[in-house]
Design a protein that fits this description.
InterPro entries: AA-permease/SLC12A_dom, AA_permease_N, SLC12_C, SLC12A1/SLC12A2, SLC12A_fam. The chain is α/β, with parallel strands linked by helices. It is 53% helix and 6% strand. It is elongated and about 145 Å long.
């Protein structure tokens, strides 16, 4: 044999031939010669340790490899040393057409569906299907333009645009409009890329974000976006109500007061709109041409009115010509700032998602959304700029409306440019005036050539936009609820009628709208909408950036005019604008979004949309794995990476639960299954098992992977798993398997395969952990019986339902036929589970189920007894320590049992205490056993001999020829020579079992060093007999053997 020693403290170890092979203390401790070493501190030192020489324990190959003919070991002459050498190295649901796509539903093109619905709105996509052919043709010709004009110009155009330019001036006012267009254009580019990267269904921004970033982001922003659309209804209705109340005021018909009148008119209006939404929209289709004419005339009326010479009445109200210079600079009042004014105006630009909101109702959303949205943004911007500049060039900020407020001859007047036209409005410095850009929201009516036409245009714009938002919010909310991300909201997913109308969503939107209508202040409602829409836009931009950054092969948008960095800039811009407008509202919005994100993350909805989050997670995982591969393993970072031979995971729950306790969420755990048989025949079952078992692991919250192979026999399959499992540094280093309890009754080949797997694991330098529970581990027969009973109950229930539907008379004959079959199946199942020894089998099954679930429960106060007999690198000690850090095992204390040399028990105990202290592992007691070499009781010897009797060759009682013939016929049997050669080792296993029963009978778990069977020397059945004798009649036992490379260190 060879041992190792250092020439100098800092020199690497060298091999040296020596006349002895083992230390005397090992011989006296175990009673027979062995290369195994007892635990020793010198095995854990660095190569350059100055506090003591570093010893090198026997390698796994030395303990496991075949003896050479001369009796020496086949050991390599060189060996790398140093610290490093001693350390272990779905079906695509999106492709299914929704019910809305069936016949009876009209689809829109880009003009009708997107361009015409782009400003704050979502077109009602279900026109009257009973139109005559002539009406339908007329609709196709005229409706696109009609809907476009109706929805581009919203409430801000007629009743707030003049106020915005009065506060900000025409200079900053232009910047406000351009900034809004920049935000919406960048978002439109991102949205276009996402929309053209696959089939787009209904749901608007929610659909785009959820399918791009996943349900966590999509679910949170979906609620916010639907809520924003519901609040938009209130904004448009309040704008309509303001115009109505102004008319009432002019005609001296105020009902209560201005604020309460807005509330009354608003509530009545939203009730009427709700009725229209639920009842139908035939009237709207017929009124499109008239509404378009009104809007076009109203806009033209503004431009014409600015060119008509002002009357004295208009001049008194501040209407002049060529006053652009005075209104160019800002004049913020009442605490307003640039960004607060921007927040009030921005809802005018939020209609860019209108086309996306009805994506499910478009003929070609991929083509319609980009062109329709971009064109709508352009038309919107030009229209707003043109009207705003005309008004700011003709109306002063303040005017009294009093014809007598003229300049007195000889008096000085420098209040405003009105002085140049003979009017003195200086009283407006101290008294709030009623007219001018800053005071009169109905400036457009005064500027226009015919005021009532502007009022009619305001009515048509606000009502149509409010109606569109009232349709949009429930549609988005219904799409969210259909995905069942928030199970409590699934109630709102139900639709009604052939168009699947979200009636329940309408009612909810109505309630939200009424609540905000009661605020009765447009300047308060508008910033709330701005905040929510900006959050939605930020996530749309980020979705495009994220998808581009992930570089997933599935990201192939047909729309090419986008840039990932522009999208990121757009997202940052939206967030920045949110915080500048109102920092606490922005924080509140993101707090709500984060709460919803965490909620969805914790609940883990059963959806898989192939989001960019998944793609980035994959990319990060690959990069981290590659980074990890470039770093050498270190003993301080060692953790058990387990490959668990469970078969189907649910059939051996105790084995899986114990492995999960070891790896928890911090280590690799791979549950493995071998399908025995030809690969082609097993392929279908293997493929199905991969998905089912991984899903089962996820449902059981087991952080483990499932791997399976098909092979001609169990050993070859396990060998494939041992060699191929893992990736880079993420490779298993420990095999966990169950003890083969039926080894005495199965075929010899099965035993040989099982022991062969152990040999293969040692050859591949795996540590081995073997679990034995006296009741057994496999509960597959119980699960099969339960599944059969459940299947029969389902059949019986289906039969009863069929009889109820078809009537007893029709189903009577079938009933008796099926009942007879079910009775036979039920009887057969009962026989297998209850007779002929029903009570015995039931008790055995009950005990087996209880034993299989024992590691799921929290272990009470008790001990984990560690019999650390051989130094295997420290795995035998590390595993119980890891268990005590888990919540279920936290109340258990460690007790350590070691082998000692007679006469040196106290010294061995002190050495172990010192070693454990250096390892920082606490234990309640250390027991040194010195009587391993005492012969076991004759009763145990007799039981062992009876156990191996069927597997003995008994060649000693035969002549040479007969003995040779028996060896050839039964090469696997235990020979007399083998028994004699390993008598001491057999005695050790029997004696160790006696000690376990004496000292550890009350332990919650026993962990004991696993004996190694040398290849070619120890027969498979003798080795199984050793394991059987060692672990019988004791609590749950783990046989552990590391790969003899250090997994513990006391260095920092």
């Amino acid at each position: 044999y060879r041992i190792y020693k250092h020439l100098q403290p800092n020199d690497p170890p060298l091999y040296e031939e020596t006349p002895f092979s083992i230390r005397p203390s090992v011989v006296s401790a175990f009673g027979h010669d062995t290369l195994d070493r007892v635990p020793n501190i010198d095995f854990y030192r660095n190569a350059g340790s100055v506090s003591g020489h570093r010893a090198i324990r026997p390698s796994l190959q030395e303990l496991h490899e075949v003896f050479e003919k001369n009796g020496d070991l086949d050991v390599h002459d060189t060996m790398d040393d140093g610290e490093g050498s001693d350390v272990l190295p779905n079906d695509d649901l999106e492709a299914i057409a929704s019910p809305e796509d069936n016949g009876g539903v009209v689809k829109f093109g880009w003009i009708k569906g997107v361009l015409v619905s782009v400003t704050h709105s979502h077109i009602r996509s279900k026109p009257d299907l009973n139109f005559t052919k002539t009406m339908a043709e007329s609709w196709v010709l005229f409706s696109p333009k009609v809907r476009c004009m109706l929805n581009i110009w919203g409430v801000m155009l007629f009743i707030r645009l003049s106020w915005v330019f009065g506060q900000a001036g025409s200079g900053l006012g232009i910047i406000i409009i351009i900034l809004s267009m920049v935000v919406t254009t960048l978002t439109c580019l991102s949205m276009s890329a996402i929309c053209t990267n696959g089939v787009v269904r209904g749901g608007g921004a929610y659909y785009l974000i959820s399918r791009s970033l996943g349900p966590e982001f999509g679910g949170s922003i979906g609620l916010i976006f639907a809520f924003a659309n519901a609040v938009a209804v209130a904004m448009y209705v309040v704008g309509f109500s303001e115009t109505v109340v102004d008319l009432l005021k002019v005609n001296d018909a105020i009902m209560v007061d201005e604020v309460n009148d807005i509330r009354i008119v608003g509530c009545i209006t939203v009730v009427l709109l709700l009725g229209i939404s639920v009842a139908g929209m035939e009237w709207e289709a017929k009124a499109q041409i008239a509404l378009l004419v009104i809007l076009l005339l109203a806009i033209a009326n503004v431009f014409v009115g600015t060119a008509i010479p002002a009357t004295e009445e208009k001049r008194a109200k501040g209407f002049y010509t060529s006053i652009m210079a005075e209104n160019f600079t800002p004049n913020f009042r009442d605490g307003e700032t640039f960004f607060s004014v921007f927040a009030i105006f921005f809802p005018a630009a939020t209609g860019i998602l209108a086309g996306a909101n009805i994506s499910g109702d478009l003929k070609d959303p991929q083509g319609a959304i980009p062109i329709g949205t971009l064109l709508a943004i352009f038309i919107t911007g030009i229209t707003y700029l043109g009207i705003a500049l005309c008004v700011s060039a003709t109306v002063v900020r303040d005017a009294t409306g009093n014809l007598n407020d003229t300049i007195t001859p000889g008096a000085k007047c420098n209040f405003s440019v009105a002085c140049n036209f003979g009017y003195d409005f200086s009283i407006c410095r101290t008294t709030k005036c009623q007219y001018g850009l800053m005071n009169n929201f109905q400036v457009m009516t005064m500027v226009s050539g015919f005021g009532p036409l502007i009022t009619a245009g305001t009515f048509s714009a606000t009502i149509s936009s409010a109606l569109a938002s009232l349709v949009s919010a429930p549609k988005v909310f219904q799409a969210l609820c259909k995905d069942n991300i928030y199970k409590a909201l699934h109630f709102f997913a139900k639709g009604h009628g052939k168009n699947n109308e979200p009636i329940r969503g309408y009612v909810l939107t109505f309630v939200i709208a009424v609540a905000f209508i009661l605020i009765a202040e447009l300047n308060i409602i508008a910033p709330i909408i701005s905040n929510f829409f900006l959050a939605s836009y930020a996530l749309i931009n980020f979705s495009c950036f994220h998808a581009s950054y992930a570089k997933s092969p599935g990201w192939r948008p047909a729309y090419k005019y986008y840039n990932m960095w522009l999208s990121l800039f757009g997202a940052v811009l939206c967030c920045a604008v949110m915080f500048v407008i109102n920092w606490w509202a922005a924080l509140l919005t993101y707090a709500i979004e984060m709460f919803l994100y965490i909620y969805v993350t914790v609940k883990k909805p059963d959806v898989n949309w192939g989001s960019s989050t998944q793609a980035v997670t994959f990319v990060n995982a690959v990069n981290n794995a590659l980074t990890l591969s470039g770093v050498d393993d270190h003993v301080k970072n060692f953790r058990p990476q387990c490959i668990v031979l469970t078969g189907t995971p649910k059939t051996r729950p105790a084995l899986l639960d114990l492995a999960h306790s070891i790896t928890k969420n911090y280590g690799l755990c791979i549950t493995c299954d071998v399908f025995v048989g030809p690969r082609l025949e097993q392929q279908q079952a293997l493929t199905a098992a991969m998905e089912q078992n991984q899903m089962w692991l996820n449902q059981q919250k087991r952080k483990a992977f499932y791997a399976a192979v098909a092979s001609d026999n169990f050993r070859e399959g396990a060998e494939s798993l041992l060699q191929a499992s893992g990736l880079g540094r993420l490779r298993p280093n420990t095999v966990i398997l169950g003890f083969k309890r039926d080894w005495k009754t199965v075929y010899t080949a099965n035993v040989q395969e099982y022991v062969g797997v152990l040999h293969d694991a040692f050859d591949f330098e795996y540590g081995i952990v073997m679990l034995r529970i006296s009741q057994g581990l496999d509960i597959s027969h119980i699960l099969e019986a339960e599944e059969e009973m459940e299947r029969m109950l389902v059949e019986q229930q289906a039969l009863e339902n069929e009889i109820e539907e078809n009537g007893f008379q029709e189903g009577r004959k079938y009933f008796f036929k099926r009942s007879r079959k079910l009775s036979q199946k039920t009887h057969a199942t009962k026989v297998t589970m209850e007779v002929p020894h029903s009570s015995d089998v039931a008790k055995i099954n009950q005990r087996l189920v209880e034993a299989s679930s024992q590691f799921k429960r929290k272990q009470g106060k008790g001990t984990i007894d560690v019999w650390w007999l051989y130094d295997d690198g420290g795995l035998t000690l590390l595993l119980p320590y890891i268990l005590t850090t888990r919540k279920k095992w936290r109340e258990c204390k460690l007790r350590i049992f070691i082998a000692g040399q007679p006469g040196h028990l106290e010294q061995d105990k002190e050495e172990m205490q010192s070693l454990l202290k250096k390892f920082r592992i606490k234990c309640t007691d250390i027991t040194v056993i010195a009587d391993f070499n005492i012969r076991p009781s004759s009763e145990n010897w007799k039981l062992f001999e009876d156990m191996i009797e069927p597997y003995r060759l008994h060649e000693g009682s035969k002549d040479t020829a007969q003995a040779e013939a028996l060896r050839k016929e039964h090469p696997w049997k235990i020979t007399d020579a083998e028994l004699d050669r390993f008598e001491d080792k057999t005695s050790l296993q029997l004696r160790l079992n006696e000690l376990l029963q004496e000292s550890s009978r009350a332990a919650k778990l026993i962990i004991v060093s696993m004996p190694i069977a040398r290849k070619g020397s120890v027969s498979d059945h003798l080795y199984m007999a050793w394991l059987e004798a060692l672990t019988k009649n004791v609590p749950p036992t783990l046989l552990v053997r590391g790969n003899h490379k250090s997994v513990l260190t006391f260095y920092s």
